[in-house]
Amino acid sequence: MVWVAFALMTGAVVLAVLWPLGRARAVKTRDPDVAFYRSQVEEIGRDASIGLLTPTDAEAAKAEAARRLMLVSGDAKATGVQSHVAVRIAAVLSLIAIPAVALTVYIRVGSPEFADQPLTKRVAERAPPLNVEDALARIESHLAANPDDGRGWEVVAPVYMRMGKFEQGAHAFAEANRVLGATPQRLNAQAEALVYAANDTVTPQARSLFEEVLTTRQDDPTARFYLALAREQAGDRQGAIDDFTRLAADSPPDAPWQEPVRRRIVALGGTPPAVKEAPAGVPTGEAAEALRAMPSGDQQAAIRGMVDGLAARLAQDGRDPEGWLRLVRAYSVLKEPELARTAVQNARKALAEDQAATRRVDDLARELGLEG
Amino acid sequence: MTRKGRRLTLIASALSVICIAVGLGLYAMKDGVVFFVTPTELAAKTKEMRPNARLRIGGLVLPGSLVKSGDRHVAFVISDNQSEVKVSYTGLLPDLFREGQGVVAEGTLAGDEFKADSVLAKHDEKYMPREVADSLKKQGVWNDGGQGTKTATP
Amino acid sequence: MIVEIGHYALVLALALALVQGVLPLAGALRGDAALMAISRPAAVTQFVLIGLSFLALTYAHVVSDFSLVNVFENSHSAKPLIYKISGVWGNHEGSMLLWVLILALFGALVAVFSRSMPDDLRAIVLSVQSWIAAAFLLFVLFTSNPFARLAMPPMEGRDLNPLLQDPGLAIHPPLLYVGYVGFSITFSFAAAALISGRIDAAWARYVRPWTLVSWIFLTLGIAMGSYWAYYTLGWGGFWFWDPVENASLMPWLAGTALLHSAAVMEKRDALKIWTIFLAILAFSLSLLGTFLVRSGVLTSVHAFATDPQRGIFILAILITFIGGSLALFAFRASSLKPGGIFAPVSREGALVLNNLLLTTSCATVFVGTLYPLALEAMTGEKISVGAPFFNLTFGPLFVPIVLAMPIGQMLAWKRGDLLGAAQRVVLAVLIGAVGALALYALQGGPVVAPVLCGLALYLIIGSFVEIAGRIAGRRVPISVMAARALGLPRSAWGTAFAHAGIGLTLFGLAATSWGVERILIAHVGDDIRIGPYEVRVERVEPRMGSNYREWVAHTRVRSGGVDVATIDPSRRSFSTREMVRTEAGIVTLGFGQIYMNIADQRDDGSLDIRLYWKPYVALIWLGALVMAFGGLLSLSDRRLRIGVAKRAGARAQVARNVQPAE
Questions:
Q1: What architecture (CATH level 2) is domain A132-285?
Q2: What is the pLDDT of residue C607?
């Protein structure tokens, strides 16, 4: 299609050259000059009449112009079609040269395979907003056919988790571990999924997975937390208190799991280690109370959920400086520097017209080391 | 007047105009030219500078160094990551003035402080005064963000 | 498909330019009518092809086709339509496409509108123009292709630099380019004259309308550019002696000189070598400007050294064309017949003086612009040559030009009467002197301001003395005077207006010394005195634009308690590039302007404000408009249409009868 257009254009251009070639006629080369000098002689007379030239100078100037007039009048060259051979050569040359040059250059620089891509068309052509169930079904059938697609398993696993299908989630993580090799993160995730699936009970299978994590990462807080929980659920109260206490002491004071860990210690009747600094967690007040009442596994998810909710709300309506500050702080606490940085940028944008608030966002970003 | 005489007049007047122009140019070069230095060059050359010589200093505004005090008086530090120069300035800062961004200050050196009477942020498309971009590039501090983006062309 | 058709059209234009560069030239040299006949349709076709290409790129910008690198890097889907369109030439690739488009436009205009030209001369002119077009098409296609694609088109573009999102940008570059590139056609004429040996008065007549057109647009383009800088850069400066500005000023100076020396060549067959040389020089300076702006050498000498492809390409074009034409020049210059003779004191002599001063001032600008670059390239030492240098060199050279202008208009061709001319400008001198004294008494200020204003007044009055002398007289009825006024050649009126325009601009420039600047902190409702006015910020509020948010300070300007105007200075934040831009509030009162800028609002609600009162500042740009109007009058002179020479002769006869010799 596009090549047809190119061919037509080339044809038109070649025609534009050939057409005048075929219509030979005489040309004027000296007539305009003659006309010009004639008018100039008249003009000198006019200039003299209004004092722009003195009469004697006018005479001299007139003589000069008249001399030039005679010069060009006698000089007229005979012109016309000099030779039909030259015309034919020219015709053949342009017939070949124009398409040849155009094609050579275009093939080097052009991109004929590209169609126009107006933005509106691209937006319209984009897949309609993903229906999760449909997408999941597609991925599942894909994975059924290609069970060794580790990436696929890894992608689908969190989707299951978000949908509350913890068993499938655990299975997907397990498959990912099988294909891609076990990593502490995925082992944790798989075990956590098993815990959720068993109504927050740390099953023996989950326990062995957490223990596997500890073989490669001895101080992994997630694994240690659940193993302590496992002790508690197994009835080893003092062992659990000891484990939780050690975990609390080993962790940075602002770690997000400090809060649930301490709750567990208190619930078990132990004394949590001295707090170095109040953790700057997200929820405060009533929400925090409610949060503390939750089982520890859910707490993490709940915190995440709240942060996500806050982010979503701010994305809708950004004129809430306090909200932005809280979100940035939360991401920082959750050890998500990238998200925190993005939040700072979004906050600046959303609050661009509120200079005082922007300044506070900047200050916080500097304080948290999120600059640059 | 003869043809030769005319030609001589013409040449003489042309020469005199050109002489005047050259003279003016040399005179103006003495006072109308401002040298551009980086903080490092300034540190190296402080002694050989004429007192009260006009200079342009370019570099990055050191983050955290901007102090606004009183009525539009600002002080900040220009740095090229090797040396630093304290700058004081009274007036409105340009729109694009930000900490960590490139800037050129023009003024005179008083002691170890640079008294700027104009702060330029007349940036090019890439928002970097050209002298600053050059000197920073030489040190490898600044990468041209615009160059790396032309990714895929057929 | 539309985009690729545009791309292919550009390639076809290159192929056609190559053919057109060879065949008509060969035809003209061999005296072959058929080959010469190619040039006109080919020139028009070439313009159509490049125009098609330009439209395709515009289409891509309008529909936000981000598969084009150029659109992705310089556009944004939320940008208002006008900036989507002006964004086409707001970037390197697009502006170079506009460059070749205008190049082709001039070729097409010559093909269509110069029926009264000798066919062989026109064929050569169009061939040379095609060579230039071919060189720049190669440059566009191989180093700056606006149609380069992105394999994975993103969903959003990077947006155009907010400073460039402005109505000024929509008009300024095209105007400037028409002027800049217009000198390509005078260059082609000069090359054609050298190739064919037709270096004579008739040639000067054929080239004049094209010089005038370029000059008019360049004048407007420079004025537009300076006004744009004035109101967007936000501190009231309108000319920075910035290399980019100098790059447009140099061709203007050379072009102005060319205009005047071509007049001598046309009337008197003198200054032939010089005129041809100026035609080459004007275009060389245009090319030099293109090189400076487009190679990146100004942005960073270092960047140019590491990625010199574009710069080297333009430099090669510059050297080829200029070197080639100078070689031809050297070859032909010796065979020229001497032209008409004239005394030093004569119209010709005055124009020679004008040329001398204009080219010298052009040279000083050249030195001031290139010296820092050369110094940095050779020694690594960085200097900036700023306003003081140019004021000291350019200023003293321009004063004698201004002084001589009215006198030169008064001198006769061949041999003039200097004393007589001086007597006739006495009135202008008196008015200038009285004006200067009056202004000094009224406004005070540095002495140079009233002196220059007086000079400007002298020039404005002096420009019309000659014409007044021709039409006015004691006991002459108005109707006769009107008839005389109409009977004068339009080019005489053009000269007067163009010269007066320079006077107006000079007046505006001189008056900047009386400007008042205040930088202060104010609250809403405070009364601020500035010059003869009071200004009060009524309220500050946010406002949403299509791709920016802004804080607007609604401000009232009052004079003696009476409201005279309102202005809305604002601060705009553009989210895509996270840039802030101040939008000045400007109002013209008389010929002066109140210019106001706001900065950040402080926590306590007070505003940092920058306020200027600039008396007569509007005259700077008004003067440029008057200059351009003068150019337009000259362009409409019927003598430029030689085809109707006979009729013109007859009308001149009538005019002579109406207007008795004095």
A1: Alpha Horseshoe (1.25)
A2: 85
**Nearest residue in chain A measured CA to CA from B100:** A372
Q: Which residues of C216-249 are buried (b: 16+ CB within 10 A; e: fewer)?
A: bbbbbbbbbbbbbbbbbbbbbebbbbebbbbbbb
Beta-strand pair B84-90/B113-120: parallel
Q: Does the structure show a pLDDT above 60 at B138?
A: no
User: Which of C152, C234, C392 is closest, CB to CB, to B28?
Assistant: C392
pLDDT tens, position by position, B31-75: 777 888 888 888 777 666 666 778 888 888 888 888 877 667 888
Instruction: Tell which phi-psi region holds residue B35, choosing left (phi > 0), alpha (psi between -120 and 50) or beta.
Output: beta
Interface of B with C in 89-118 (CB under 8 A): 91-96
Domain coordinates in residue numbering, chain B: 34-142
Yes or no, beta carbons of A371 and B63 under 8 Å apart = yes
How far apart (Å, rounded) are the C-alpha atoms in residues C411 and C466?
A: 10
**Spans of all domains in chain A:** 2-109, 132-285, 299-367
Closest-CA distance of chain C to residue B37, Å: 7
Mutate to test the interface with B, among C147, C241, C293, C300 (most CBs of B within 10 A): C300
How many Cβ pairs closer than 8 A exist between chain A and B?
7
Give dist(CA C540, CA C434) in Å, integer.
46
Tell whether A117 is within 8 A of chain B (Cβ): no
Neighboring chains of C (3 or more beta-carbon pairs < 8 A): A, B
B28 and C389 within 8 Å at the Cβ level: the answer is: yes
pLDDT attached to residue B1: 54
Q: Which of C24, C55, C8 is nearest to C128 (CA)?
A: C24
C551 has which bridge partners?
A: C542, C571
Q: Which of C34, C64, C269 sits opposite A68 (nearest CB)?
A: C269
Average pLDDT for chain C? 86
Work out the average pLDDT over A301-329. Answer: 78
Contact C152 B144 (CB under 8 A): no
Cα distance between residue A173 and residue A154, in whole Å: 6
pLDDT, tens only, C517-558: 888 888 888 889 988 899 999 988 888 887 788 889 999 999
Residue C574's pLDDT band, with cuts at 50, 70 and 90, is: confident
b/e sequence B108-147, b meaning 16+ C-beta within 10 Å: ebeeeebebeebbbbbbbbbbbbbbbbbbbeeeebebeee
* Segment 78-137 of chain A within 8 Å of chain C by CB: 78-83, 86-87, 90, 93-94, 97-102, 105-106, 109-112, 114-120, 122-123
> B111: distance to nearest CA of chain C, Å?
22
Q: How far is C572 from chain B (nearest CA, A)?
A: 10
Q: In this model, does residue C423 exceed pLDDT 90?
A: no
Average pLDDT, integer, range C592-606: 83
Q: Is the pLDDT of residue B147 over 80?
A: no
Q: What is the pLDDT of residue C109?
A: 94
Q: Specify the pLDDT at position A129.
A: 53
Q: What is the DSSP letter of B47?
A: G
Q: Could you read off the pLDDT of C373-391 as tens digits, one per residue?
A: 888 888 877 788 878 888 8
- Radius of gyration over every alpha carbon of chain B, rounded to an integer in angstroms: 22
| Contact between B18 and C233 using a beta-carbon 8 Å cutoff | no
Q: What is the assigned CATH class of domain B34-142?
A: mainly beta
Query: Would you kindly state where each structural domain of chain C is located, as residue ranges?
Result: 1-165, 166-412, 425-503+628-658, 516-614
pLDDT-based confidence at residue A215 (cuts at 50, 70, 90): confident
Q: Is the ipTM of this complex over 0.95?
A: no
Phi, psi dihedral angles at C19 (to 5 degrees): -60, -45
Q: Note the pLDDT of residue C299.
A: 63
